[in-house]
Specification:
By secondary structure, the protein is α+β, with helices and mostly antiparallel strands. It contains six helices and six strands. It is globular, with a radius of gyration of 17 Å. The structure holds zinc ion (ZN) (3 copies).
Length: about 190
């Protein structure tokens, strides 16, 4: 599980075995759902797999750890099944995966990304911090409980009722920085 539980894999682009990430995520999901008595139906499993596969090959994103829009998931499901996938069933599958903490919703991109450590969150749905590359779209989940605790403490002091605790940080990932440097030197 080396690449899977390592946030740096998110920014490794083509230099890591992303197939191993996908297989690891699906195996973990099956194990977690079985332990919780939650039904990972074939459609839910397929939607999770497509979220994990990330951006389609040939797209701008060199990495595969890029959040995927629901619209693209629908298009890819339809291509694979050779008949249109019904949007409500796909959204219900996404809701299930969110509730189980197997995926996260990135609000700023209106997209979904696989959770890097669902086993670390027996509570299911959870917040986290995401570093998102504005160039290639790759997103890394860095869950620091101290950040959560600091936000929760200030919210409590202010009498603020927290509904969602996901923090989205925008920037440029290491491979994109190197590419920009090369382009600059030319
Ligand atoms: Zn990967
Ligand atoms: Zn997570
Ligand atoms: Zn990037």
């Amino acid at each position: 599980m080396s690449a899977f539980d390592n946030a740096s894999a998110s920014f490794a682009g083509a230099r890591h075995d992303h197939g191993a990430c996908v297989r690891g995520a699906l195996a973990t999901a099956a194990r977690l759902c079985a332990a919780r008595g939650a039904r990972l139906t074939p459609l839910r499993r397929r939607v999770l797999e497509l979220v994990w596969r990330g951006h389609a090959p040939g797209s701008h994103a060199p990495g595969n750890h890029a959040p995927v829009r629901a619209y693209d998931l629908l298009a890819r499901l339809t291509a694979r099944e050779q008949r249109p996938a019904a949007p409500p069933t796909v959204y219900r599958a996404l809701e299930f995966l969110l509730a189980q903490g197997l995926i996260h919703r990135i609000e700023s991109l209106n997209a979904y990304v696989g959770c890097m450590n669902p086993e670390g969150h027996p509570e299911g749905a959870h917040g986290g911090q995401f570093l998102i590359c504005s160039d290639c779209g790759a997103a890394a989940e860095v869950h620091d409980p101290r950040v959560d605790a600091a936000v929760a403490r200030r919210a409590e002091e202010l009498g603020f009722a927290v509904r969602r605790k996901t923090i989205e940080v925008e920037g440029v990932c290491p491979p994109c920085q190197r590419r920009q440097e090369r382009d600059h030197d030319r």
